């Protein structure tokens, strides 16, 4: 009897130690992508210079004239994943991995996004925990399937060209490919003009098994069977 009590106590201590380690080793997850405050971007870009109202109006008019052309994912863009990790169904943490080097383009004509395709190298997606990263790379078999891709499968109608800072909310449809498996997805996006750039954010719900991705849970940490692909793109006209 005493032996059973001792074993139970030892297990309790072990669980408590794992819980303490789990909490201490996790930093707060970055928030989900949201559109930036364009007034802050404008202030930063101007660097406090004495731009006149006439000059600002001229720049705005040029920006509004047309969005026609090819827009390329540029500096400041990010993409990655968000999943929830549970410890004994008691504690849960959002695990987030991010890549700062996504690539891709949008083709716009008039007020219609005609096409678009994007890619992220799996090996470039990093979190705050190297062990999680290694499990992520393994489950996505990054050496065989080095990229995650998204290709739009239907035009996106904007109705009108937005004014700078005006936020647009709509839906996009595309083919998402992870670990060599492709599924059709429809997901919400938000976009706005920030200066002469397009900022776009979106999140796609993903069920791992739909893409043949194994669950990297272990005896102490359980990873939920679904997550999100999140992106924040800043696009520059070519």
Q: Could you give the count of β-strands?
A: 11
CATH superfamily: Lipid/polyisoprenoid-binding, YceI-like
The name of the CATH architecture is Beta Barrel
Terminal residue distance: 75 Å
Order of helices and strands: HHHEEEEEHEEEEEE
Binned strand content? 35-45%
Please identify the oligomeric state.
single chain
What's the CATH class label?
Mainly Beta
**Widest sheet: strand ordering:** 1-4-5-6-8-9-10-11
- Counted up, domains total 1
Largest sheet: 8 strands, antiparallel, barrel
Q: What name is given to the CATH topology?
A: Lipocalin
Give the overall average pLDDT: 83
Overview of this structure, please?
With 238 residues, the protein is of the alpha+beta class. The chain has an eight-stranded antiparallel β-barrel. It is globular, with a radius of gyration of 22 Å. The longest helix has 24 residues, at 2-25. The chain starts with a helix and ends with a strand. The chain has a single domain, classed as Lipocalin. The protein has helices at 2-25, 38-46, 53-65, 130-139, and strands at 69-73, 78-87, 91-99, 103-109, 112-121, 147-152, 156-157, 168-178, 181-194, 197-207, 222-237.
Essential attributes:
Lipocalin, 8-stranded antiparallel barrel, alpha+beta, 4 helices, 238 residues, single chain
List the helices and strands and how they pair.
Blueprint: H1 2-25, H2 38-46, H3 53-65, E1 69-73, E2 78-87, E3 91-99, E4 103-109, E5 112-121, H4 130-139, E6 147-152, E7 156-157, E8 168-178, E9 181-194, E10 197-207, E11 222-237
Antiparallel strand pairs: 1-4, 1-11, 2-3, 2-11, 4-5, 5-6, 5-7, 6-8, 8-9, 9-10, 10-11
